[in-house]
Amino acid sequence: MRVFITGNKGQLGRALQAQLPQAQGGDLPALDVTGLDSVRAALRAARPEVVVHCAAFTDVDGAARDPAAAYRVNGLGTQNVALACAEAGAALMYISTNEVFDGTKTEPYFEFEAAQPLNPYARSKAAGEWFTTHLADPRRSASRTRSAS
Question: Is pLDDT at 112 greater than 90 in this prediction?
């Protein structure tokens, strides 16, 4: 299986790359997820079957100071990855955060529960979840392509 890791120079990306040494990957400056053309080019070259999206703005305090920057990377950057995955026919695995939940439950949260993000970082990651859920299905892209022919 051909795997591509975004953000493969970050902490999570390096750890994943060590476990999947055959995986290709990209990170800044060559791969900038905030630019759709950058993501498309990387995925065209790698031809992955699965993209593990680790690239992220992870500075929670920085996100509070500059919510637009966090949203640009975690929200719109994920939108770009999701669109490029759909176009390439690749499955997308998005890495989110427990901070999309408000922490009021006394039991574990499950991924299908409604997000209740309380800060700019969490809101930006919840946006990434939305884009992943609504845009990344390569089967939808393939069916759109077939019906357009």
Answer: no
Residue 129 belongs to a domain with what CATH number?
Answer: 3.40.50.720
Of 71, 94, 109, 121, which one is the catalytic site residue? 121
Spatial contact of 43 and 84, defined as CB atoms under 8 Å apart: yes
Taking 90 as the threshold, does the pLDDT of residue 33 lie above it? yes
Looking at the DSSP bridge assignments, the partners of residue 6 are 26, 53
Q: How many Cβ atoms from other residues are within 10 Å of residue 14's Cβ?
A: 15
Q: Which tokens hold the place of 23?
A: 């995986």
| Closest to 99 (Cα-Cα) out of 120, 68, 82 | 120
Whole-prediction pTM value? 0.87
Number of domains in the chain: 1
Q: At residue 25, does pLDDT exceed 90? A: yes
Q: Which residues pair with 50 in a beta bridge?
A: 3, 91
Instruction: Please give the DSSP secondary-structure letter assigned to residue 34.
Output: T
Range of the domain at 9: 3-148
**Can 121 be counted among the known catalytic residues?**
yes
Output the pLDDT for position 142. 43
- Per-residue pLDDT at 138: 58
